[in-house]
Structure formats: C-alpha cells, structure tokens
C-alpha cells in the first residue's frame, strides 16, 4: 500500500494547477448556440474515412459522412444509408439503399456509391489500416434500383458489426480528385461539411442545411487540437470550449464541483492495453515480454490513475465484446520473477523505447516506465504527434518501438475487430506472428456457431497469454467535460455525433 501511495503521489506531482480563468456566461451562451467548440487531444490524422480510424479522426469525420448502418443509443444496429437488409444465405447479405440522400456537392447518393465504398476499403492498394476488419468481403454489386448485395468468403458473423463503421463516399468525386485531394477536401452526405482544415490547429465544419435527417443543431463545429490536458480543462472552465475530450479521472473529479460545467462519461468497448513488439529489439525474446507483464501492477495503475473509472481486464478485450473470457488469467504481478526472467534472457539494464502521443495518458506511460525501471529495464519514452505515432505504430517492427500504449475500439463489440487486426499475421498493426493463433482467429470469424466461436477465442487468448504481444490493462471509460447547457449522452462505441447534441440554456 505504501508503494501505491508513493506512486500516486509521484504521478500527481508537477501537474499544472487548474485555475479558473475569466468567464463571460453571456458570451459563451451566445457563441455556443451557433458555434460548438470542441477541444481534442490531437489533430485528425485523416478526414478520409477509409484510412485511419483513430479516435480524434473519427470524432471529426463521423460528422461529415453517413455510414451504411449505425448503432442507436442502446447499441443496437439500425439503418442509416441502408434502410434494411436480409441474408440470402450464410455468405450473401442484401441491403436496401435509401433514395433520398444527397452528397454535399448536390449529387444523389446511389447504390453504386455504396458498392464503390465497399470495394475501395477492401482494395489492398488503398492500404487502409481498417482492411483486416473488412477482408472477409469478396465483392459487392448493385443488384437492383435500390439494392446492393455483399458477398463474403465464408460465413462472417461480425459483418454487420463491422459495416457500422463503413462511411459512404461519392464515387465520382473520389475518382475525379484522387485519394490525396479527397483527404484534404472530403465530400460526404452527413450533417456537417468541411469548411476549413488548418493542420495541427483546428478543423471547422459547417452545417449541411439540407441534411436528410433534419437540421443539425449548430451552424458550425470547430474541433481544435489541444494536446495539453490542463489547457483543455482551462478552456472549458473559461468558456473557450464547449466540450473537451480525453479527460483523466483526476480532471473529472476536479470538475465535479464546478457549477458551469459537467462531466459526461460512459463505459466503453475500448480496451486500454500495452502493445509489446515481439518482432524487434529486446522484446523479441518472449522472456522479456513475460517479465514486462509481471512487472506491471494493474491494480496500482487503476487505483492511482483511474479513480473508479475503469475495470481490470484479463486480456486485450473488454467484457462488452463478444469473445471475452475470464478463463484465461492475466500474468500475476511478480517483480522478483520478472527480474529473474530478464537475467535469464540477458536483458538486465536493456533500454527499450516506449512510443506515445498526446492522445494517450502521459501519467500511465510514466507509471509503466517506473515499474519497469524497478525490475531492471530502462524505458525511453518518445513523444510525437498522433499522425507520426500512427505511422510508426503501423510501420515496420524496427521503428514501431518496443512498447506503446493503446486504447483500442473496433466499434463492433466483437473480438474479431480487436485481436484480429492487432495480432493476426499480416496486419499492419501486428508486431507478432504465431500460426496457431492465426488458425484460431481465422476459424472464429468464419462460423456463425457462437459456441464454436467462443471456444476458438478462448484458445486464441490462451496463446496470447503465453506469447505476450500485448498486455490488457482495463476497460476504458470515455470521459468528457462539457458546458452545463450541453445535453448529450456518450455511448459505449464513443460515437461523437453532434447531430445527437442539444444546447439548452
């Protein structure tokens, strides 16, 4: 207990005091009714929805595009661009497509645009980081005036859940301007359209007055890149921001006494984990990876950093996802055994690189650095902006760092969208390879038998437990700070839909 108290004191020392700034309620109310200002941890890495799917990018571009299907507030998959669907057989899914949706350039959204969007994201030439979540799809075609048919290699139980994330893009625009220009000037059919994107500074969206679902609540939405958490909180308190994302539990506790603001939170399907590079550097040795697992005191991390806003997990998955199992136990906290394993591996005093960005909790990085230092590893933390972090994390193993913090959500609530892209050989995220693991996750995604799928995932997690290419820490809770006038309920899939928000003075 003394160690935990000491760690907590160490982590909180040096944090910038949150001092309320001057605030004019009249100004904030008037501005927020027309302009919603959101502070994000990072600038979007992309506005092309078929490329990156990190939190800050998705938060912005999800408001520019409509998806094939979506989830309601309860998590149920419901229509959006598709008005309905049915299975013709185990590998054939037929969608009815709405005929009343218009892109921002005034052209109609058609079934051909849906087919183009599906074929584009599964095209290996696009090099989408999302490819592994759609690679069971073998084809899509227009099969009627308002109908699209999608075929899969085998029965694919997570197909609809994955298609929740599929944004529909206009074929004519993408082909005319090319992928690079489309990322700079995206055209969607969503409630907001891009007005300006100042890289590293802010992204401004303006209302789509002809949106098919009705009038969006704000004239403009400005997403600002504010890497420093205390600055985001100060912006909220001063009325310079209406919503701030990526708050820590300490921030949330500090804000609860503020009359002008509120804390909004929701347990998510997002899992907080450490990625451990099994293909390069000192962590290529499984004994080093196992030592790292035993050097991490998860209970201390949760107690010192999360303040009740998290629950420990046994693996790199949360109980909100199909496939989670409590039959595979995590590595115990055992610093003595960790030191012995490092000595056996000849890795005492080795230096390992921990890559990170402002999108991740700095204090967790430092806590892990301290814990690994106590067992004899030197941890060098390398901070970089989110786009650079993603390029390195998805790149070759030699430049991906030995460790990185992750907060992974597939928005599909299925293990297929988590451990398949993170650890399956061939994925750009995977810094690990094991044919036995590959066989289990491949089998789990190709049968509709839920009992068989659960058995495959249990065996897959048993393999991951021994190989340690990742260490599950806790089920993440999304925490937002907002002005008191904002009416909005966050959801488990972290869908930041401005369309669902209201301003009530």
TrEMBL record:
Location of the Solute-binding protein family domain: 76-425
Keyword terms of this UniProt record: Signal, Transport
Signal peptide: 1-30
Keyword Cytoplasm: no
Gene3D superfamilies: Dipeptide-binding Protein, Domain 1, Dipeptide-binding Protein, Domain 3, Periplasmic binding protein-like II
Coiled-coil segments: none
Family of the protein in this entry: Belongs to the bacterial solute-binding protein 5 family.
Matches recorded under PANTHER family: OLIGOPEPTIDE-BINDING PROTEIN APPA, PERIPLASMIC BINDING COMPONENT OF ABC TRANSPORTER
Identification of the protein by name: ABC transporter substrate-binding protein
Organism: Roseomonas elaeocarpi
């Amino acid at each position: 207990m003394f160690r935990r108290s000491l760690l907590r004191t160490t982590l909180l020392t040096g944090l910038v005091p949150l001092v309320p700034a001057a605030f004019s309620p009249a100004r904030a109310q008037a501005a927020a009714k027309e302009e919603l200002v959101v502070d994000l941890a990072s600038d979007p890495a992309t506005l092309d929805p078929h490329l990156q799917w990190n939190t800050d990018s998705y938060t912005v571009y999800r408001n520019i595009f409509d998806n094939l299907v979506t989830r309601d507030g309860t998590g149920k998959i419901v229509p959006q661009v598709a008005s309905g669907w049915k299975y013709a057989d185990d590998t054939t899914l037929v969608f009815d497509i709405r005929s009343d949706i218009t892109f921002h350039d005034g052209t109609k959204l058609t079934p051909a645009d849906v087919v183009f969007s599906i074929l584009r994201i599964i095209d290996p030439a696009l090099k989408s980081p999302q490819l592994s979540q759609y690679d069971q799809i073998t084809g899509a075609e227009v099969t009627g005036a308002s109908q699209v048919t999608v075929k899969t290699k085998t029965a694919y139980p997570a197909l609809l859940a994955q298609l929740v994330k599929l944004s529909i893009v206009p074929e004519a625009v993408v082909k005319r301007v090319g992928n690079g220009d489309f990322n700079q000037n995206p055209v969607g059919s969503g409630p907001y359209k891009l007005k300006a994107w100042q890289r590293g500074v802010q992204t401004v969206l303006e209302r789509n007055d002809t949106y098919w679902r009705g009038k969006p609540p704000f004239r403009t939405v400005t997403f600002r890149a504010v890497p420093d958490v205390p600055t985001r909180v100060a912006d909220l308190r001063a009325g310079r921001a209406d919503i701030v994302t990526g708050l820590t539990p300490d921030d949330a506790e500090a804000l609860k006494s503020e009359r002008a603001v509120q804390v909004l939170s929701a347990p998510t399907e997002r899992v907080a984990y450490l990625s451990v590079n099994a293909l390069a550097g000192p962590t290529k040795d499984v004994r080093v990876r196992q030592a790292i697992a035993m050097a991490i005191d998860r209970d201390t991390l949760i107690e010192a950093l999360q303040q009740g806003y998290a629950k420990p997990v046994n693996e790199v998955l949360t109980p909100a996802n199909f496939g989670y199992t409590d039959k595979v136990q995590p590595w115990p906290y055992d610093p003595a055994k960790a030191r012995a394993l490092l000595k056996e591996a000849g890795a005492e005093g080795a230096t390992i690189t921990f890559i990170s960005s402002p999108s991740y909790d700095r204090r967790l990085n430092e806590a892990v650095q301290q814990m690994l230092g106590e067992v004899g590893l030197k941890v060098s933390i390398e901070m970089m902006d989110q786009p650079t972090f993603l390029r390195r994390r998805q790149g070759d193993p030699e430049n991906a760092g030995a460790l990185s913090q992750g907060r992974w959500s597939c928005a599909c609530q299925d293990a297929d969208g988590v451990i398949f892209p993170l650890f399956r050989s061939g994925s750009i995220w995977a810094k690990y390879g094991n044919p036995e693991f590959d066989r289990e996750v491949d089998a789990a995604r190709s049968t509709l038998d839920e009992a068989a799928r659960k058995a495959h995932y249990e065996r897959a997690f048993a393999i991951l437990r021994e190989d340690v290419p990742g260490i599950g820490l806790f089920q993440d809770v999304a925490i937002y700070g907002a002005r008191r006038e904002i009416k909005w309920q966050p959801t488990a899939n972290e869908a930041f839909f401005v369309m669902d928000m209201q301003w009530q003075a």
